[in-house]
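[Meeting: bench + compute handoff]

Bench side (C.D.) handed over the final construct sequence. Compute side (W.E.) agreed to return the predicted structure before the next meeting so the bench team could plan truncations. Sequence as handed over:
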Amino acid sequence: MSRILLISPKFDTEFSRAYELSGLKIQADAPRSLIVPLNLATIAALTPEAHDVDIWDESVRGEIDNHTDLGREYDLIGVTGYIAHIPRAVELAGLFRQRGIPTAIGGPGVSGAPHLFRDAFDVLFLGEAEYTWPQFLRDWEKGAHRSEYRQVERPDLSDCPTPRWDSIADDIPLYRLGGVQTTRGCPYDCEFCDVIHLFGRRPRHRPIESVIEEVVTLQRLGAERIFLCDDNFVSNRKYARQLLRELIPVNNSFDPPLSYSTQLTIDLAQDEELMELMADCNFTQVLIGIETTRPASLQEVHKVQNLRRDMVEDCKKIQSYGVAVRAALIVGFDADDAEVFEEQMRFLEDSNIASANVNTLKAYPGTPLWVRLQLEDRVLDVGDMYHDAPKVVCNIIPKQMTRVELLEGYRRLLQQTRAWDSFQKRIKAFVSSVTRQPNLPPPSSAVRQKRMQRLSRAREAMAKLPEDARTAIMDVVAHTLQTAPYMLEKVAAMTMQQLMDAILLPYQSELIQRQIDQTLAGKLKLDPDPSAGMIPEEFHAAAGDIIPVLYDRLNAEIEHKATIPEVITAVLKDFLIRWGSGFTRLEDYHQAYLSELCDRHVERWNSKEAPGAGGGDGQGPVLTVERAGSARFVREVLVSVEQALRGEVKAKRESESERITGARPG
C-alpha cells in the first residue's frame, strides 16, 4: 500500500496574522486558521482505498522542515495552492524532492500560472481533478505517469465524492469555518475574475443530499460555522431555494444551529423568498462583489449585473432580513480617478454596510484583464509580496492616477473603513434597519451557558483593547440589545471581524508603504508574458469551425478516446505558437499544418512510450461529436490552450536566445 501526504502550504493569511498581532492570549482550542482544507479532503476522497492518504495543513499543524516528525514515511507528496502559496509550495517541493519523494501540485494558482511550477514539481494538475487525480494514480502505479494532467471539460459534480476528514477530524474545531461546496462556476464574465476560466460560465450543482451529508458531518466533528464555498451561491436560484428548504430543518435540529456565510451576486435582492430562506437558515453574512459605484468602471470590466439596479437599496433590502452584506470593493479601474476613494466610502455609509473587503485591482494570470494589461505593458512583477498580504498588493499601472496616488488613496480608504467610530455608526444603522426577525429555534440552556462563558472571556479581552474600540463595542452591544436582541450573535461575529481588520491595519499600511517606496525608487519592473493575446479574437471566432473538424480526425485515429480533449488542446497550442500572432482567418496552409500536427500527436498519444496515454480507463466521460461542436466545449478548450501557452512561449524564446548567444539572457 502506497502512502500519500496531501499538504496545504502555510502563507500569511489575514486571519492568522491578525491573531498573531493582537497580543491577546489565545486558548489552546481556539481557531488557528480560517477555513478547513476542503480541497485536500476532496482529493483524499478521490484516492482509491489501495492508497493510504493523510492531510497536513501547515496553518494548523505547523510548517514542515527537515526535522518535522510526520509520523510515517510517504511515497508521494501532493500540494495545493493559490498564487499566494507559490513561494511556500516551491519550498515544500524542494524539501521532499531532496529526499527522493515525487511531488505533485494542483489548485487555482497552478492552473493560472503553470509555468511557475513546472521546474519545481514532478507532476502538475491543471483544472479540476475529479477525473485526472484517479487517472494519475493508475498511471503512477504502472510507473508511466505524465508530467501534466489537464482537465479540459468540466466534471459533473455528482461525480465529486463526500470529502474525507478522517486524518484531520480532531483538527476541525481549530478552524474558524467549515467548508462545503454546493456549486461551481458563474454565469457572469467580469474581466478581472478568474472563476469562469477555472470553473466555467455554466454553474454546476452538487446533489442536495450530498451537501446536507457534508454539513452534518462537519457539525458532528465540531464545526460551528459553515462557509458555502461557491463562486456564486445564487447562480441558480431555484436550486438554492430547494437546498435551503431541505437544509433548514436539519440545521434547526442542531443545538445550536450552525451559522452560514457565502458569496453571491447582488441580484439576491430580487428574490424575497430566497432572502427569507437564507435568514431562517441562519446566514450571518454574504460577500457581494460591489466592486465600484462608478458605472463607467462597471461597464469597463463587464460587471453589468451591478448596473441594472440601485445597489444602495439592494444592499439595504438584503440586510433588512438580518443578513449582513460584506461589500467587496476594488479601486484602480481605468475609469477611476482620485475621487473614487471618497465615493466608495460614501457607498458604505449610505448602504449601512459595516464590513468591507477593500482591494486594489489585480491582474491575475489568464484573466481577460491580465491579457489586456499585458498587451498594454501595464502588469508589474511584485515578486513574493503576494505571499505577505495578497489583498493589499497591486500589480498594475493605473490609467488616470499615478501608482503612488492609487496606493495612498487605497490606504486612506482602509483607514476610514476600519475606524471604530465609522464602524460603530454603520453597524448600528444596519441593526436598526432589520425589519424581519429570522425564524430560528430558541437556544437551549446549555447553549445559553456556553455563550455566557464566551461573553465573560470577551469582557476580559476587551480590557486590553484601545479605548476607541472598547467604547464603540459597548455602544454597539447596548444598541443591539435595545433594538434587536436576536441579532446579538451576528453583531458579535461582525465586531470580531472588524477587530481583526483593525489589528491588521498597521501591518498592511507598512506593506502599502513598501510598494510606494519601490515605485518611487523605480525598483518595480514590468512582468511581460508573450503568451498573452496569442489567441487572437479572429481565432476565437474560427475555433467553432476548427475544433469539430479536429475531433472527427482524432476520434478516428486516437485509441484512447478519453484523451481527445487533451490532444485537441496540444494541437491548437502548437498551431498558435506558430501562427497565432498573424492569424486573421483559416487558410489552406493553416489546414495543412493542423493536419501535420494531428499526425504528430496521434503518433505520440498512441505510442506505448507516451506516459499515461494508454493507461487506465480514461478521464471522465468520453467526448461525443455533439459536445465537441458545442460553444461550451469550444470555450473550455480555449481556456485550456491559454493555460498550455502560459510561460511556454517565453521559455521557448529564452531557450532560443541561449542557443544563439551561448549564454542565458540577463
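W.E. noted at the follow-up: The chain has three domains: 2-154, 181-441+497-520, 537-661. C.D. will use this when planning the next construct.
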